[in-house]
Structure formats: C-alpha cells, structure tokens
Amino acid sequence: MLEVRLTHTLGALRLDVAFEAPKGVTVLFGRSGSGKTTIVNAVAGLLRPGTARIAIGERVLCDTAQRLHLPPHRRRLGYIFQEGRLFPHLSVRQNLRYGQWFAPRDARAEDMARVVEMLGIGDLLSRRPGALSGGEKQRVAIGRALLSAPRAILADEPLASLDEARKAEILPYLERLRDEVDIPILYVSHSASEVARLATTVVALDAGRVVAQGRAEEVLGDPAITPLGAREAGAVLAARVIRHHDDGLSELDAGGAALWLPRVDRAEGAELRVRIAAHDVIVARGRPEGLSALNVLPGIVQAVREGAGPGAIVAVDTKAGRVLARITRRAAAELALAPGAEVHVVVKAVSVAQADVGAAG
Q1: Where are the alpha helices (DSSP H) in 111-269?
Q2: Domain 2-220: which CATH class?
Q3: Could you cite one Gene Ontology molecular function of this protein (predicted)?
Q4: Could you identify which of 129, 139, 159, 209 might form a hypothetical disulfide with 86, taking C-beta atoms 3.0 to 4.6 angstroms apart as the criterion?
C-alpha cells in the first residue's frame, strides 16, 4: 500500500491531498493543472513538498515532521515518463539489463523472460530505440522499470505522446501489468477512456484537492463528480462476452442484461469493462419502440444533477449497472425526471468505441 499525504504550493496551485494506492492501478484523474504530476514527482523524490508523509508499507520515503526525505535513487520506484527515455546507444536487451543493474541484491527480482513475454517485446531485443515505434519504446520503458525490482511504479501520462493506433497497441499490455504485477501503480491521466479501462482505484482531483476516491465504477458513476467536465462524463459497466455473431456484433451479458457492441477482440467468456459515454445515452419514460438502437435498458433514476448551463447529468441504476446520461435541463423537466422515476436508457451499439472496451481488472 502506497500512502500519500502532502501539502505544497506551486505558483497558483495550492495542493492539499491524502489518499492510499493499493495493489493495482490507482489513477490520479483530473484536468491539466489539478496537481497530478506534482503529486507523482513528490512521491518520486523529484520535488520537496511543503509538508508530507509518503510511505510504502512500513518504509517511509518522506516525512517532513521528522525531516526525512529519501533521495530518488533510494526510494526504489520505477518511473515511466510520457516519452520512453531509453538510452539510444543501447539495444533493447541492454536497456532492460540496465534496469536489472539497479535492483538490490536482496530484492525479489523479476524474471527477464517473464517481463519480455508479458510486454511482447521478444522480437525487439536486438534493436536500438531509434528503430522502435512510440508504443514499442513505452513497452520497453515499462520493462526496464519492472526489472529494477521497484516497490511501486509511477506512470506520468505514459500514452499522452502516442497517436490513437499506438495507444490501442499498448493498452492491453498495461492491463496485463495491472493484473500480473504485485505492487502499487500510480498512474496519471486526463483521459476518461484510459481511466475506465485501467483503474482499480480512482483519485479524482480538482484544483489541488481530492474530490473523490474509490473503485473506478463508483467514482466514474457518480454524476456529481466530473473532473474533466460534463462532456467527458460516462459510467463503467462490467460485462462478459457471450458470443460473436456473423453480422459483426458481439453479444455481452451485463448483470443479466444483454448488451450489443461492435465486435470486440476478446474470446467468448472473457470478462470486460465497458465505458458508456453519457452523451451517447438517451432517456425515455416508457419503453421506446421502432428504434434502430439495440441497447434499451429499464432502470430507476438515482440522481439528476443540473449544471450551470443548459445541460444535466442523469444517473440511472439498471440491471447492467449505473448508466449516466447527458441531456438538456429542458428535457429533464419535460420528462419529470427525479430520483425514483422509472425510465429506459437507450445506447446505440456503434457509439461504443473499441478504446472504451477493456479487460476486467
């Protein structure tokens, strides 16, 4: 368990946060300037916070009350930056061995072969970084961090510099990292899709404060919490692949409700997370007929949160899980939407992007 309590002033930002990051991926989520990178740099020892206590288990990394501030090289943390930052004159194999060189002799070392297989970089070992794509460089950087036997991994928006194709390439490897590595991973992101796919825990930040923390589906499904604004609101559903159909659709089971999506590249029986963006959801008071949309789920309104503008976020509890819908305040009033109202939510199958479907963690 990584424990973080710190306050710090950096320009106009006044940071005051406290949270815990258990095993798995804890995502620091919020707008640019909310303090995400400042927190990660304080944990890494690259920044001296005003006041802080940072610890991993029994090992204290920083305690300003005791005037304790371990330097970065003594914290045993793996740091993955936005760019791979590999040594250009070394091969992939040599870059990985450089990580091993930093592993303490008494630490449980990761097996090189296992890391290479997990990250799918076996064919790259003899190449130099200049011959790698952005996604390949990031996978090697992850491997180097793992092979240093870290107590925790820090990742500062590791996909931010990649195009959509490279992001799609590396996300499955980050899911494997989450599921197979037995240490905390502190991950910075301002992408709702990344959070929905990867996070086991979400720490939502706004202007240097923690506004919510907890399981991804709980935080992302709360209509009062929109760290990136209402346009990026969306909920996460747990689902299982039932079968793939010849017309290019995949049939999923979400809590006993059928969910239809464009074909997902997962085996039948696979457990998934599916992010449903709030702006792709329609709310109806009765069950609509004659629609082209395949996903129509009955539910009960849990909350209606009106914004300062013309919009509102409606949270609906369905058999599949909580779904958020972004509609106009006028529509909410005309439908008399309030907690307890019986409604149906409608989701077009083709509106769910492949980037919003990932392996369950």
Answers
A1: 112-119, 134-147, 164-180, 192-198, 216-220
A2: alpha beta
A3: molybdate ion transmembrane transporter activity
A4: 129
